[in-house]
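User: Once you have settled down, look closely at the record that follows, taking as long as you need, and be ready to discuss the fold:
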Amino acid sequence: MAGKKKWIQEAIKEPGSFTRQAKAAGKSIQAHATDVLKEGSKASTKTKRRASLAKTLTKMSKKR
């Protein structure tokens, strides 16, 4: 079980960075992630990856 959780810790290089971006935009994390992942979004690749990870982690926490 310890091996499964380790990938999450390794995937998050800068904890809280996407949350800061969302709050700066005046949105919740999920709302900001949805906007970033929309087609035609001009967000950077790094931001899109962070948004995707945020959505994935939310799904994982709901399954618990």
